[in-house]
Each structure stands twice: as structure tokens, then as C-alpha cells.
């Protein structure tokens, strides 16, 4: 049985924001796949759930006036993965969405929820009062850190961000749309997640009472090819051990511009500027790919048990660049 | 348990009005608004009230084409309500954390986990459970195929497997082998009957044609 909470399912966004503002410890319920599990396990407490599932404006995926795409926060992961325009123009995002969790979870989980999900670190999810839960230490630093990060811990918290859609949205220059007590604002997808050195108890830059309402993608630039590679221990239901999201603009065989984000690498979707530097302005021949693969782990700080990720990232980056070069 | 789910009377102690129940809940609220009976905006800042913690709310749940009016706490999952309030024990409680698939039900024809779905979130939707796949006293085609292909051993995961397979075949009546593998990847079988399950789904696709 879940702990008790007050519950409301408003029909208006303003109502949802007002309810959240009134709650002492309110949480947004979208698909519920992560939230219900967290409440059952007592990962955090919530005195109030404000369900946004009845907000029809937050559903749907449609083309925007400028030729981009608006994905309502409540679009399910399955809807994102299967949408013809996502598949045609933002293949990396479709690929990332299709690799999330299991079919049932994709049918229920939302894109907004996928961005806002809680970490999967087993200390965080277990009975450890870690830094992220307001405690005094990161237990992964000296503990079993098999699935923890190579980059970006800032020696504070060693989670990897669990989302497969976030690195693709960041690579594709998406924008996150937010509504809160102070009105609307937007945040670039690559700035939406919170580095542990800034606030170890927050995963996103959302302020209290704020709700993600949509994600928008700019029109695909000329020559855009995007893709996502997820490496994991099982073919389903698993989080990325290592992953790479590519959004590259080609001019013939040459990479004119591009953004590269790693998953399973850091507490936030991790931009790999060394890889970008290694490939921009180049043809993706064997030598360039080899250099880029090596660059993907430049500056990595492996922990006692996750050194295997170095090879995984190098291999994944090399394979994915080879694939994308072939078109 | 604090509340008897089968109670025929409201246990909210008068803390929420009947109107509160109706407006608090999605479909009811939409229906009432459409009828024009309560479209006048109340003076409060919020149109949809909060169901207080620990209180029950009256909901309509449509399961296997039958609509049940029930008192539920917001924290009760659909799995809990199906089994404990409605006595429909075909839907199994496994991990209760979205990791095994034993509780798979169809919601508007789409497979989802009942253990991660609050009952209050399922109102206004069409829920189909294993029981709903029967054709009277006869097994439905997917059930029959599972029996014929010996697609279970202990049987505990089987209801979830069958409902997930039914969801797949409703969306794709002629699934490829790869599609079957992918669509069934949200259901675990600890006995390891996966090849038989795979065969059963191919056979069921034929039966449904």
C-alpha cells in the first residue's frame, strides 16, 4: 500500500499550478511510472499529488509554424518513438525513446516525466541517506559504483542520468517549456538538468511549483543526421551503461556542425566537446573515428568498479559514427 | 485496512461534499460541465478540489465493458482495486514496481502496468483484464493458444503475458517474430517459457484472423 496523499486531477494548468503552490510537499503526477515506485519505496515523501494527466493541452505532438515540432509533456514515450515526424526528422530522439524501459512503461511514461525522472543509483533507491536525500555522503564514491559516472560528479554525487530521451533532446537543441507560479519560461534542454555541484538534491532546474508543459524542437537544419546508441546489459528494461546521442550536420561527407551527448556517463546528459572537436570539419574516415572514440573518454574519472565503461564508450562512439557516416 | 473498499456508504466523514467528489474527478467533471449544470465558476481559486489525504472518492471504473461505481482512496492502485475491490484476481501482483509485467492490463487497448496506475487515474478509460478475454465460458484465442502451445509452467506470469499478447495483436494482427519479441519484452517469465510464449502468440494471430 502506498503512503497516504491528497490528490487532485485538475482540468486547467492554472489549477494545477495553484494546487502545487498550496501543497507543503507536492509532486506532479504525469504517467506515474517513476513517481509511484518512488512513493512505494519511500525514496521521498509527498503530502499531495497533483495529477496533470487531465490537462488536454499537454498532450499531442504537432508541427510548429516554423517547421519544428512541439511535443506535449504528456506525450507518451511510445507516441514519441512511433511518431512519423519524429522518426523522419529527429531519428535520434525516436531511437532513444524506443529504447526506454519496457513496452508497458513506454505506453505509460511521458516525455516530461522522462526528463524529470529520479536517479537509479542503488544507494539513492535503497535505504541509504545519501547526499541526494539530504544525508552527508555519497555511498557510491567508495562503495559499489559499477553503474556510476565517469564524468561530472564534481566529487559530490556519482549518479548517471537515466534518461534516453534527454541526451537526444539536448543534442537536437530542444527547448523545455515550463509553467509555474511566476508564469511561463523556457530552458534549453542542455541546461535543464542540475549538476550536483550546484544543487545535489535537485535533478532539474525546475523551481518549486513548476510544471514542464512541452518540449519543442527547432526545424531540422540542412544535412542533419541524428542517431542514438544505447549499450546495456539486457535488451529490455535496462538503463544505459553507456550511450551516445549524435546530431550532426553533413555537407556531403564532411561534418559541418554537430552536437554529441553521452548517456550513462554523468549526473546530467553529458556534452562531449572533445568528440565534437574531433569530428567537426572532418570526413568520418577511420582515422577520424578512431580519434573521436578516444576523445569520448578524455577527462574521464573512472571509479573502482566502472572502468569497463571506458572501453564501452569508445566502442559505442566508434560504431555509431561509422553507422552515421554511411548515412 | 482503514477503509472497507466494499462499503456501500461514503466514509469521508462529510469532509468532501458529493459535489466535491464529482468535480474532483475527471470524467465526472467533464460530464457535468458539458451538461451546463455546474458551469458557474466558484469563488475559490481552484475549480478542481483536492481529495484530502486518507479520504475516499467515488469513481466509475469500466472494466471488461462493465462500469463499476466504487469508493477508492487516491493511493489505491488499479491492481489493488481490481483484486481487492472487484475480486478480479486474474490480474496478478508480482513485483508491484513495474518490473515484471504480471499485472499487465489493457487501458484503451494499450498494455500498461496496473501496479503503477492509480485507480483514480483509470476512470473514463476502457480497462480490459484477463477475465475480459473470455468469450462466455470459452477461452479467447490467445488463452487457447497459450494452452495448446504449453506456454506456461507455474502460470503466475501467464495472465500478464496473455494480456500483453492481446494488446500486441489488437495493434498488429500479423506481428513479425521480431515485433513479438519486442512487444513481449515487458513481461518476465521466471520459468523461462519464452519460446513457447512466442509460438503461442504466432498461433493466436492465426486464430484471431
Task: Lay out the secondary structure.
The complex is a heterodimer of chains A (327) and B (209).
Chain A lengths: L5 E3 L4 H10 L3 E4 L3 H8 L7 E4 L9 E3 L5 E4 L4 H6 L1 H6 L1 H8 L4 H6 L2 H6 L5 H4 L40 H6 L3 E6 L2 E6 L22 E7 L6 E8 L10 E10 L2 E10 L6 E2 L1 H7 L6 H10 L12 H18 L2
Parallel strand pairs in A: 1-3, 2-3
Antiparallel strand pairs in A: 4-5, 5-8, 6-7, 6-8, 9-10, 10-11, 11-12
Chain B lengths: L17 H7 L1 H10 L21 E7 L2 E7 L5 H8 L18 E4 L2 E4 L12 E3 L12 H8 L9 H14 L5 H7 L10 H15 L1
Parallel strand pairs in B: 1-5
Antiparallel strand pairs in B: 1-2, 3-4, 3-5
Helix pairs in contact in B: 4-7
Walk me through the structure.
The complex is a heterodimer of chains A (327) and B (209). Chain A has 327 residues and is of the alpha+beta class. Chain A folds into three domains: 50 residues, Uridine Diphospho-n-acetylenolpyruvylglucosamine Reductase, domain 2 (2-Layer Sandwich), CATH 3.30.43; 113 residues, Uridine Diphospho-n-acetylenolpyruvylglucosamine Reductase, domain 3 (2-Layer Sandwich), CATH 3.30.465.10; 102 residues, 2-Layer Sandwich (Enolase-like, domain 1). Helices cover 29% and strands 20% of the residues of chain A. In chain A, β11 and β12 form a beta hairpin. Chain A starts with 5 loop residues before the first strand and ends with a helix. By secondary structure, chain B is of the alpha+beta class. Chain B has two domains: 115 residues, Roll (Ubiquitin-like (UB roll)); 75 residues, Orthogonal Bundle (DNA polymerase, domain 1), CATH 1.10.150. Chain B contains seven helices and five strands. Chain B has a five-stranded mixed beta sheet, with helices on both faces. Chains A and B meet through β1, α1, α2, β3 and α6 of A and α2 and β4 of B.
